[in-house]
Amino acid sequence: MDSLPAVGHADEMDPSPDASAALARAHEHALRWLATLPDRAVPPSASVAEVVAALGTELPDGPTDPATVVDLLAEAAEPGLTAMPSGRFFGFVIGGTHPAAMAADWLTSAWDQNAGMRTVTPATTAVDDIAERWILDLLGLPADGAVGFVTGGTMANFTCLAAGRDAVLTRAGWDVAARGLAGSPGVRVLAGAETHGSVDLALRYLGLGAPEHVPVDDEGRLEPAGLRALLEGGDDQRPTIVVLQAGNIHSGAFDPFGEVIAVAHEHGAWVHIDGAFGLFAGASPAFRHLVDGYEAADSWATDAHKTLNVPYDSGLAIVRDPGALRAAMSMHGDYLIQDAAGDPFEKVPELSRRARAVPVWAVLRSLGRTGVAELVERLCRHARSFADGIAVIEGADVLNDVVFTQVCAAFGDDARTREIVRRMLEDGTAWTTGSVWHDRAVLRISVSNWSTTDADVERTLEALRRAVGAA
């Protein structure tokens, strides 16, 4: 790595050698970590207390060489790391980092741009603009919509629901930006009974409280008749938001968007879709049918670190009406250098933020349209292989209709299922998570990593067969 140019006055310490050495050491440790992933046990081998002891608890009185700090961090932390980027981590829908995204994320940190203002950061704003257009095009969403690059799925839901809250109250004659929520008509929120907790959290942040639950079917899909009954019954005339789901966390199921959105719009509701991992079904010709009609909604939330395999800090808040998004999120200050074309900070909750669109752009540019579709289809194929492999294990029961990337299985009574979950983690070959679905203990497999191979699936099934045999 070439030395960085000298910075500052002649009488100041040149930071370049320190930066070069620290970055070189970080690069070495990163490559060493990545090289362990194909074979290492997935669970960590050290506890929090052990890592704390290795790092040391006393703040030094004086400075430490940056390269030494990097060495200490990498060596002390490594035993306490879970192999989440491994192709055998199926515990949560968190994906892995695609190589192009990882490298772009390193550059993002090195560039150190506060990517909020068009005039101040033209390079990162250009990437924002392009990534926004590509996302909308890839997913078949309105081309004139707006995309805010936020921290994750929870804040994507928050941002979209803030736009929806303000829009429905504005239509009711209430300016929430000027007057707040006290004294307003209030907002009624309807959501399926198996909506993800991040939606409830976002609603709580927004002062809207818990949603009213709409009945769902056995796979967790919202029932249109139940929604219609709630919208037409009673005398609740509050402005309304309807929250739908693209990808149930247990079954992977998708709400029937076309029918449900039409019902909601008949009653003047804003329709939001939480598609943390499932929204990218829209990028695959083979799975596009799962989201038929979703383009008619008013907002969509997804998390690029899941199915798209971008690093963390990569939520996407997508809103049909850019004006509604900016009305909810933007602010003005005389010290800000604002552009008439609009600025990235007007579409997100923060003023200061990293250039989150850069790794998103990098993955999309690296994979292209067909590569994203193949990624989605490969994840779904692996999930189907898991379901088929589990189905032939004696005493096993696949509980969901495997339509996307989620598999839930039980192995007799709850106690035995929980014991098998425990044995799987003890084995260390793969990480699968226990949960409860329909009041039954389950082992849940979420397939979301670009690097998962057929061999990873088979190794995991072998470990599962061992766990079942020993339970």
From TrEMBL:
<dbReference type="GO" id="GO:0030170">
    <property type="term" value="F:pyridoxal phosphate binding"/>
</dbReference>
<dbReference type="InterPro" id="IPR015424">
    <property type="entry name" value="PyrdxlP-dep_Trfase"/>
</dbReference>
<protein>
    <submittedName>
        <fullName>Aspartate aminotransferase family protein</fullName>
    </submittedName>
</protein>
<keyword id="KW-0032">Aminotransferase</keyword>
<dbReference type="GO" id="GO:0008483">
    <property type="term" value="F:transaminase activity"/>
</dbReference>
<dbReference type="InterPro" id="IPR015421">
    <property type="entry name" value="PyrdxlP-dep_Trfase_major"/>
</dbReference>
<keyword id="KW-0663">Pyridoxal phosphate</keyword>
<dbReference type="Pfam" id="PF00282">
    <property type="entry name" value="Pyridoxal_deC"/>
</dbReference>
<keyword id="KW-0210">Decarboxylase</keyword>
<feature type="region of interest" description="Disordered">
    <location>
        <begin position="1"/>
        <end position="21"/>
    </location>
</feature>
<dbReference type="InterPro" id="IPR002129">
    <property type="entry name" value="PyrdxlP-dep_de-COase"/>
</dbReference>
<comment type="similarity">
    <text>Belongs to the group II decarboxylase family.</text>
</comment>
<dbReference type="InterPro" id="IPR010977">
    <property type="entry name" value="Aromatic_deC"/>
</dbReference>
<feature type="modified residue" description="N6-(pyridoxal phosphate)lysine">
    <location>
        <position position="306"/>
    </location>
</feature>
<dbReference type="GO" id="GO:0019752">
    <property type="term" value="P:carboxylic acid metabolic process"/>
</dbReference>
<dbReference type="GO" id="GO:0004058">
    <property type="term" value="F:aromatic-L-amino-acid decarboxylase activity"/>
</dbReference>
<dbReference type="InterPro" id="IPR015422">
    <property type="entry name" value="PyrdxlP-dep_Trfase_small"/>
</dbReference>
<keyword id="KW-0808">Transferase</keyword>
<keyword id="KW-0456">Lyase</keyword>
